[in-house]
Amino acid sequence: MRKLTRKLHDGFSLIELIITIVVLGLVFVPLGITVARYVDGAFYSDDLGTAKELARMEMEKVNNTAYASILTSSSSNYEGYPFDMTRTVTYAQGDAGTTESLKKIVVDIKKSGSSTVLVSLVTYIAKNVSCGI
Amino acid sequence: MNSQKSFTLIEFIMVIAIIVVIAAVSAGLVTYFTQNSIFIPNKLNTNLAASQIMGSIVEGDVDVKGGLRFSKSITAAQNYILSFHSQNNLNVTYSLNTSTAKLYRSIGGGANTIYPYYLSNIGVNMYGKNGQMFTYYDANENVTAAAANISRIKIGFIVNSGSGSYTDWQGQADVTSSIAVDRYE
After folding, report:
1. Of the candidates A43, A50, A61, which has its C-beta nearest B175's C-beta?
2. Of A131, B58, B116, B185, whose CA is between 20 and 30 Å from B96?
3. A2 domain-assigned
4. Per the structure, how many domains does chain A have?
5. A4 located within any domain
6. Residues B58-107: tens digit of each pLDDT
7. Residue B101 within any structural domain of the chain
8. Contacts of A1 in chain B (CB under 8 A)
């Protein structure tokens, strides 16, 4: 009986409290990290979606440009978005002087101030070639 | 054992201080988890809506075959209204109503219905980018208003759930893309 009374009035010891806090930490820290990663993922998916549409937009601009005018160019804060666009044009076959030629167009979209390419699209446009090259 | 022994003032203050610390930390955690469990679905839903709207205007869907990519002609070109003749010979009109903040679609002269249907939810709104949804360019990349001269169409819009702000736990998608119009006959 005496033992029981002692137990009721003693409360937790310091070591018990510390163990409780550590266990709570073990549960909530990974949970917090997981949620934070989901939040980052939601923002990343948004960036990726915007970058994809901007890259496609640049490709449609290329599509609407005369062959001779398709040149390397770049633009920061593309269309007012916090993204940088780089259009790289090289000759895959021939050059500016030849009758037949093939241009390779690469459009890269990066987040402003970042060196990671979020979206990269590639296309080829031919001049005076009717059936392959 | 003296069962009448009471707490001292210092013990009371310590208990209250510890309760305040634990309450503050757990309130922060609960807010963080709740906010993000509401924000993340809102964000992903608006991203999905924006992607579907852009995709169906540009590439078409089951009702509008080919979309703008394989359109036969552009019949109306305004800041918030775009009509074109689709691959399956239907006149399709997309119009963004700036007062209801919803996108409407009419196919073959039919009624204007909210598109996509889930945009009819209260709180999900759509706006043009910089005061217009459609911008039209001619073959020389100059802005034009004449439907016959249109060579490229820029489409920009914002889809919001509520205010669209992260601090209000709401999502927003802001996209701009374009399509070169080839007039397939």
Report:
1. A50
2. B185
3. no
4. 1
5. no
6. 999 888 988 999 999 999 999 999 999 998 889 999 999 999 999 999 99
7. yes
8. none
Pick the residue of B34, B44, B178 with the most A CBs within 10 A to test the interface with A by mutation. B178
Judged by a CB distance cut-off of 8 A, whether residue A35 touches chain B is: yes
pLDDT tens string B101-141: 999 999 998 899 998 888 887 788 999 998 899 999 999 88
What predicted TM-score, i.e. pTM, was given to this entire model?
0.81
Domain ranges, residue A83: 13-127
**Residue from B176, B179, B182, B183 whose CB has the most chain A CBs within 10 Å, to mutate:** B176
Is B138 part of any domain?
yes
Q: Is residue B52 part of a domain?
A: yes
- Torsional sign, CA B53, B57, B62, B66: negative
User: Looking at CA atoms only, how far is residue A81 from chain B in angstroms?
Assistant: 9
Does residue A67 form part of some domain? yes
Number of structural domains (chain B) is 1
**Is residue B126 domain-resident?**
yes
Mind telling me how many Å the CA of A53 is from chain B's nearest CA?
Answer: 5
SS3 string, chain B, reads CCCCCCCCHHHHHHHHHHHHHHHHHHHHHHHHHHHHHHHHHHHHHHHHHHHHHHHHHHHCCCCCCCHHHHCCEEEEECCCEEEEECCCCCEEEEEEECCCCEEEEEECCCCCEECCHHHHCCCEEEEEECCECEEEECCCCCECCCHHHCCEEEEEEEEEECCCCHHHCCCEEEEEEEEECCCCC
| Residue A21, in any domain of the structure | yes
What's the domain range around B142?
9-180
